[in-house]
Design brief:
The complex is a heterodimer of chains A (about 260) and B (about 210). Helix content of chain A is about 40%, strand content about 15%. Chain A is an alpha+beta fold and about 260 residues long. Chain A is rod-shaped. Chain B has helices at about 5-15, 20-40, 45-60, 70-90, 90-95, 120-125, 130-135, 140-150, 155-165, 165-185. Classes of the chains: A alpha+beta (about 260), B mainly alpha (about 210).
Chain lengths: ~260, ~210
């Protein structure tokens, strides 16, 4: 580096108070003998601080906008709902998976097919509670009005047949009816997209009560699973392997979907 | 905001209270916005980028280790987000912001010259419109480092950290930025390249 360039940088650093004592001495000595660098130092001194020229303030509602966005990012801090919406739908899918999976081992011996969904339902706060919370842990949320129940028992002994939906994070598609070749009612590559979809203006996805749905979701093994859902008396019911149903939510699908906003 | 207050707010957020973030937003929104404004040169984009920066700070706060000042960490996020914005715009600005070409096409700083007299320069530096136009005409990396230094008040160490450059590069880049600013201010609003008669280096070959 040319000598004058070296001193120029020292002059800059001096303006910023970033000189070491040695550099400072060196620079003073040089300035005494170099009119060029003295002129440079004066010129730089004149513009130093010009970069701090007045800029407009941020928009008036900036803090509010940021904090609104921050709150929207924060799970579990508002209203009654314990889980943020995508977590709730993931929980629904987890519950569906659990019921399916439980259907193999534990529910199988409920015996004789009872085709009536309502009669076989268990509430989400019972048997399904543990696994739901586990799956929702990825969203940093937990809790809820739990009531301990013996229904939780089947969860423990689930070692047969199907893999546990340990890391259920993705809900893919929700179809009206059984035709998974049709347009899904809801579609999501991930929970965030789903949340965006569900917090949109219009609850166009809210289904009519009593309709059948097919939920396609990813399990912990990355494979896709399919489960049929329907509503019964305002609760969401998931079809079990034996053809019976298990309620997985105390809310109707419409309520779950509407709770997104 | 003192460092203790900052730490308290950060801890509050980490403990699950999103409202604890608000004082941090209030304390730094102006600097973050100004940095984004200098880099993006658009008030709308700057507001969006600044908001993104705070949101990213919020969601990744647990990765802030407290080794640097919170503001430095925040400016670094802002810097990265603005680069993303620039890339999205697909302007050459994004490229030149990253070049480390410290002395290429530098305008020769000829002294003495009455155009550069400290008095004349100081007068020009008082003229806000002239300064704004001159800063806007600086290359993005110069604009940014000047902003971080003079609005953000970052030390050379912090500048090096924020911009991921060596301390020596901080010095030379700041020097280059101020020289260019001098030259731009001295040129009195005529920001075209200096006349060919100057002993410029690296200029286009002349016939």
């Amino acid at each position: 580096m040319a000598e004058h360039e070296y001193y120029e940088e020292l002059i800059t650093a001096a303006l910023d108070g970033e000189l070491t004592p040695e550099e400072s001495l060196k620079l003073s000595a040089h300035l005494e003998s170099c009119p060029r660098c003295r002129a440079f130092a004066q010129a730089m001194g004149a513009v130093a601080g010009a970069g701090a020229e007045q800029l407009p303030d941020p928009p008036e509602d900036f803090t509010r906008r940021v904090m609104d966005a921050v709150r929207a990012q924060t799970p579990g801090k508002k209203k009654k709902s314990v889980l943020p919406f995508p977590a709730r739908l993931a929980a629904l899918a987890a519950a569906a998976a659990l019921v399916l999976w439980a259907g193999v081992s534990a529910l199988g011996n409920l015996g004789d097919k009872n085709p009536s969904p309502a009669s076989d339902t268990v509430s989400i706060s019972n048997g399904a509670q543990g696994p739901i919370i586990r799956s929702a842990d990825t969203y940093g949320a937990a809790g809820g009005e739990e009531e301990a129940s013996e229904e939780a028992a089947p969860v423990e002994g689930l070692d047969g047949g199907m893999a546990a939906p340990a890391a259920l994070e993705s809900v893919f598609r929700l179809y009206a009816g059984e035709d998974t070749g049709a347009e899904p009612v809801l579609e999501s590559a991930n929970g965030e997209f789903l949340a965006a979809l569900l917090t949109g203006d219009e609850p166009a996805a809210v289904p009519d009560r009593g309709a059948d749905y097919t939920l396609v979701y990813s399990g912990g093994d990355g494979g896709e699973r399919t489960v049929r859902l329907w509503e019964s008396d305002g609760t969401v019911v998931v079809e079990t392997e034996d053809g019976a149903g298990r309620a997985v939510s105390a809310q109707s699908l419409a309520e779950i979907l509407a709770a997104g906003d | 905001m003192t460092r203790e207050e900052e730490t308290r707010c950060i801890q509050g957020v980490l403990d699950g209270d999103p409202e604890a973030f608000e004082p941090l937003v209030r304390a730094y929104q102006t600097q973050v916005y100004h940095l984004a404004l200098r880099l993006l040169d658009s008030e709308a984009d700057a507001a969006d980028a600044a908001q993104d920066a705070f949101l990213r700070a919020y969601t990744s706060l647990s990765s802030f280790r407290g080794e640097s000042r919170f503001s430095v960490w925040l400016y670094r996020l802002t810097h990265n987000i603005c680069l993303d914005y620039l890339r999205k715009r697909r302007r050459h600005a994004a490229v030149s912001l990253q070049t480390e070409d410290e002395d290429g096409e530098e305008q020769e700083f000829d002294l003495p010259d009455e155009r550069y007299s400290p008095e004349a320069l100081a007068e020009r530096a008082e003229d806000r419109a002239a300064v704004r136009a001159a800063i806007a005409a600086l290359p993005p990396d110069c604009r940014e480092i000047l902003t971080l230094r003079e609005i953000g008040g970052l030390s050379y160490e912090e500048l090096a950290e924020t911009l991921s450059i060596e301390r020596g590069t901080v010095k030379s880049r700041l020097n280059r930025a101020r020289k260019k600013l001098c030259a731009l201010l001295a040129s009195g609003g005529n920001f075209s390249p200096p006349p060919a008669s100057k002993k410029g280096k690296g200029g286009a070959p002349r016939g």
